[in-house]
């Protein structure tokens, strides 16, 4: 007799010894009815005299004569007979849970006993292997039903995540309470808020495994700045653009999913060095990607390579068309984070904005959105911007140390002995961040006009055109409902989908874009002004300190010169 080994999930729920136990589990009734109906059909086909009364509404198949009591010894005898009579080599013993095995054995014992009383011929169930497969299917369906719809997030973390609608969301505090797993929780919460987990049937265990691998990849090089906290910060900022700036009403569900996915993986396995460092040092990565967008190409390639593993593939239930659109948008957005294409991006979006037509290229627009979110920390409150600056400069200085070791010239801002931090941040705000955020604001305003135009059908249009626009309006409304309705479920009762007030008026001044054509609030403007003022004050103090140090250094040098001259004169006299 073949011994059936128990599965690892044996302790997850109690063993079902007889089919009456299955009947007690209400959520499995429909599965039991299906499987038993199939077995009855198979049994009737192979042995018409065995089953005279099969009631599909019950989990027990009743033979025409009195049922056997089904003692354990009878079960063992039947199991031995089944193994002897049927070829079960295709089914691995350890693939059959105890409860499924007992359920099948009990069922076939009753059939076999009744048949033996009818005549001398022993029934031969040629489809036992298929029946066992059906039992395995029952177990899989049960585990799928019992699996929670959303990965559980601890309450102390959930309290912090409720503030994600704020422009200046404190990622450092969340990372601290989440034990360094901020990206995992932020991503899960946002995917649930937008209804994407259920929409695209993402298995919870697959999502959790994927996020664990992504977070591990961000920690591969132990970077001070380009790590999982930065990824979570960019992802939350992208969420602000989707939610508070109304971009979610302009995008399809697949595009919203792709936008969040791109934010999550946009710096995956970042080496803590710049593209220029890879090119100048001739790294393997630079050779692989021919010196062009080296890091950005690697982020994309490494992230999509993870999806080749079915246990990590969060896109496994997308159709071919959805996957093509998804990947195309993600690639466009992540490649757009290459700083060398910064001014080209701005010029392209400026051209799109100046045109009177409301038809805007989504891929190029969303690439700018992610790029601006990637460099947005100077446009957050000082309590967030200043720590980010210290982390970024430390990463630059570590690259400078590597360049010194390799005999390479220092990259800009990478020499820890000569770099003026305050001056560098003022220049970064004036020439990079402020112009980018201004163009982004103009782009968002134009997108609001586009949504308003869609919501307002043109007069005198044909019925067909009106029908198309009504369908479009319905899609936007349903997207909005998904975003907001699922949020209350995710965060518990009493939480409303609106920006929470904060101490800074800039972070609470944003309003949700509803596609009414009105210009959105720009909380980053005030933050940029404040941060630039802080840096200017620090630059002034640094200049004073430097002047003082230079004066002391000059005095010390003059004193040394006088001392050396005195020593030389004394030696001449002697």
Automatic annotation (TrEMBL):
Cofactor dependence is on:
a divalent metal cation
- Tell me where on the tree of life, at the top rank, the source sits: Eukaryota
Q: What class of enzyme is it?
A: hydrolase
Q: Quote the record's cofactor note.
A: Binds 2 divalent metal cations per subunit. Site 1 may preferentially bind zinc ions, while site 2 has a preference for magnesium and/or manganese ions.
**Pfam families attached to this UniProt entry:** PDEase_I, PDEase_I_N
Gene3D superfamilies under this entry?
3'5'-cyclic nucleotide phosphodiesterase, catalytic domain
For the region Disordered, give the residue spans: 456-475, 546-574
The entry assigns this protein to a family as follows: Belongs to the cyclic nucleotide phosphodiesterase family.
Spell out the protein name for this chain: Phosphodiesterase
**What are the leading ranks of the lineage?**
Eukaryota, Metazoa, Ecdysozoa, Arthropoda, Chelicerata
| Gene transcribed to yield this protein | LOC106461691
